[in-house]
Structure formats: C-alpha cells, structure tokens
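Job type: complex structure
Entries:
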Amino acid sequence: MTAAPAPAALITGAASGIGAACARLLRGNGWRTAGVDLRASQTDLAAVVDVTDQAGVTAAVDAAADRFGGLDLVVTAAGYYEEGIDVAEISHGQWDRMLAVILGGTVNTCQAALPHMLARGEGAIVAISSELALAGSATDLHYVAAKGAVLGLIKSLALEVAHTAIRVNAVAPGPTDTPLLAADSLWRKPDYLATLPLGRLVTPGEIAHTVYYLATEGSMYCGEVISPNAGAVI
Amino acid sequence: MPTPATPAGDSPATAAGRTVALVTGAAQGLGHATALRLAAEGYVVAVNDISDDGRLTALAERIGGMAVPADIADPAAPPAMAGVIAERLGPVRLLVANAAAMDMSPFLTARPDVWWRQIDVNLSGHFRLIQAVVPGMRAAGGGRIVIIASEWGVTGHANATAYAASKAGLIALTKGLGRELGPDGILANAIAPAYIDTPQLQVDADDAGISLDEMRQQYRDLIPAGQLATPEDIAGAVAFLASPGAGAMVGQVIQPSGGVTRTRA
C-alpha cells in the first residue's frame, strides 16, 4: 500500500505578497506547489510567465498538472495596484492592462486548470478579489472594476461546475500589508487605519489561512466570497 | 493544519492551559459536532442545551468538558452560566451561539407565544449571553464570538417569519458587535448555513407533510452543489472562525451552503 501523494497547488502571483504567503503556507503543510509569476517564485515548479499570456499560462498549468498528476488547488493571486488616479485620467492603456492582468489572468488560469480538474471531477479554485470590489472606491476605478469582474466570473463559474466536486470561491481581502501597497499608500495612513474596526492592515498570512481553509474544508462553499478584511466591509 | 488553541490575545488560557469555549444547543446536530471538533482541537468546552436528558452530560464526559443545561431565554440563565463556567474552567474565550427554537407557522395564524419564543431564545437569549461573557473576554485581552445564523435570516422563508426574523437579527447583531468589539480584539462573525442534515429536517418534513427522505431530496434539488451540509461542515466553519489565522475576520457572514445564496448576506 502506498501513501496518497501530497496534494498539489498552482498559484499565480506566487513570487510576492498574498501569492507567496499561500505558497509558503501550503508548502509548510506538505503540499507540492507550482508558481506562475513575472519572477521566479519559491515553489517546486516556478514558471516565469505573464498571466496575460494565454499560451504561456496554459503551458505552465499543463506542466504542473503533468508533474503532480493533477491539481487539487488553483489560487489566482496575480495582480497589481494603481491608486490616486481620477477616473477621467485613467488611460485606455492603464484600463486595458488592469483588466488583462486581473480579470484576463484569472480567466486564462481557470480555463487552463479546469480540464485537469474536470478529468478528476474535483478540485478547488480560489480567486483573490478585494474588499474594494464590494464597497467601491475612488481614484482606483480600473482596479476596482477588474476585481469586481472577478467576483462575477467566480460566482458564475462556481455554478457552472457545481454538479462536480470542483469548488470555485473568492477571497476579498481588506488592505493587506504587501509590496502592492506603496509606502505612501492611502491605505497605510494612520487616519485610514483608524477607521477599521481592527485598526490595522491584514497580513498576507491571514489571506493564505483563508485560502487554505477553502482548499481543505471548503466543499460546501460554492461561489462564496470570504472577507478577511479587518472590518473594512461589514 | 495544526491549529493552536488560543483564539485571540496573549493572556494565559485556563483549565490546564486550554482555551474555554461555550457551545449552546449542543445536545445534538451541529452544536454537538462543534463541541466535538473544538474539543479535538484542544479547547475545553462547556456545553449547553435547554435541558439535560442525559445527552448533554454524556457529551461533556466524552470531551472532558462541562454541562451547563439552561434555558438561555430565561434572563437569569446567561449570567449564571457564564459565572459557573468562569469559576470551574475559566472565562469563556470562544462563544458559539447555536441554540435555536424553531416553528413553522403561517404568519397570521402563528400563536404569539410560539412566535415570540423563537425571538426570545435565538436572539434575546444570545444577546444576554454575549453580554455575560464579553467582560471576561475583555479582561483576558480578546475572544471570539461565532453566531450560527441561517440562510433564512438572509432570504426569509414562508411560514418561518419568527425564525427568519431572529436569524436576521443575529446577522445584524454580528455586524454591530464586529464594529463595536473588534477594537477590543473580540471578533464576532456569523455562519449562515442553509440545509444541514440534522434532526431539524424532520420539523421541515412535518411542515411539508412529506417523509424525511423526500425532504432531503427536495433540499438537494435546491442546492447548486447538490449536497446537504453535514454538522461537521459547519463545525469546521466554526473552527476556522475561531482559529488564530482568522484574526482579520470581523463582522462577516460566511455561507457554507453549497451555493444556495452565494454571499447575499
């Protein structure tokens, strides 16, 4: 009798911030991990790929599924942030790039991973959205729109595969202490933090913990959005 | 993953170093499963139900906890329960507000005492219980409150106006407590399950005039994921909200319902 192989995850945006925290927590719990990022990630199989590159993402996902014999979990954390831009000043280039990375990257990753999960009839997809998608926000509309679109995608995809044991959900973090937030970001200012019930930023580890819960005990969540947000949106 | 058993704060836990939890409505169903799960994770668990027909004591003995039978709708009960638990085990650091009265009756013909009984237990009973345990949580430097709400508190349901009102009230209470107690490190969150395979299903089946198995199938047909939640699924959600890693969860409602409502709360 052989022991069941360790579960396997693929994480986009695995080189830093929330994605890196997910990779670290999963590896610490014995998972095998593959990372997709613009830079090499601390994973067992690190692909350097832009998530807007559909062929590149598909190749990375296929390679991970081949290497691990399938994928138990996919986390879509790749993204970036731009703040302090009035709506009228968001260029078409900025808009297109934001949608391509956050929404398009999630689509590319889900489309590549789903056939592998469908072949086994099970798996978990967890998309990282944002509390801003729930509450709205000024001066970062392209980011908010993209993160909101991810929620629509995730809720619909969840229903599309609900008859299988594939579960699709989202985590909507509050402002999280990652390199995405510049040192002078509005979300780091004491005046803002004082408005939060917990008075502090969320840690990347707290987001990873939520992802891990969905991955390991999440069979009854289907299109859910879980919000470890320090009280930013209640 | 390994889950340390101190839900919040840094002050020493009690009862031989273990964190004290209180679960209401623990004689059966998801309260029972939750008590077992928390005990397995290292909590020392006080278990409550409206009376002890032997099940509550048997559970307490099995998990090395303590039985505190009482009707939480009796205004004298919550402070007495909190007092005796604090004396025997230490202050409650994790409250799981699960006990519920439920009756299916058309709104216009519902008996007022039956209607109000559901508010008295589900909402007012837990309001008083939270009041009774929060001072101990504050003194200990933090705590967790996990409120078992219901999908019907989100969506409403025919013939369940009192139950839905009580659960909707609990959701609003969760949000208010999240804001009010969050700064003290006391994190209140809620779980809104939909259809769980518990003895409660028999009440629904009786109301619908069908068998228990027919009721189960009717509910499965309503659930995108096609499966009823188990009490253990909900116990897992409680354990998540109580865990140290969930320290950024406050005032939230999570719905392990198989996709019935999808974050409508």
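Summary: The first helix of chain A runs from residue 17 to 28. The helical segments of chain A are 17-28, 54-68, 92-120, 131-135, 141-160, 190-193, 204-217.
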